[in-house]
Design brief:
- With 89 residues, the chain is an all-alpha fold.
- The chain has one domain (12-85).
- Helices cover 70% and strands 0% of the residues.
- The termini are far apart.
């Protein structure tokens, strides 16, 4: 993949952390560390977008179908009572 040279500015604390990671042998260069950090951020962003989409879909479903206030057992009891009243049980 082609590379683009960038100039970035980091805080002293961030630079110390970057240097410590390289000293521990986790990364050969600071560029390698920055690229990995960007990949991780991209993956987190995608994951957040997927979760957000699921939440929006769930919210739309609730708007369309409404909330259910009863427990499953209460619903079952209600269905049975209604069936008894209608002579179906």
């Amino acid at each position: 993949m082609p590379m683009v040279k960038k100039s970035i500015t980091v805080t002293d604390q961030q630079e110390s952390w970057i240097q410590a990671q390289m000293a521990k042998g986790h990364y050969a260069t600071d560029s390698e560390l920055i690229r990995e950090a960007l990949r991780e951020k991209e993956m987190r962003t995608i994951e957040i977008e997927q979760i957000r989409a699921k939440l929006i879909a769930s919210e739309k479903s609730v708007e369309e179908h409404g909330w259910v206030e009863e427990t499953p057992q209460e619903m079952l009891d209600g269905f049975k009572e209604e069936a008894r009243r209608d002579g179906k049980l």
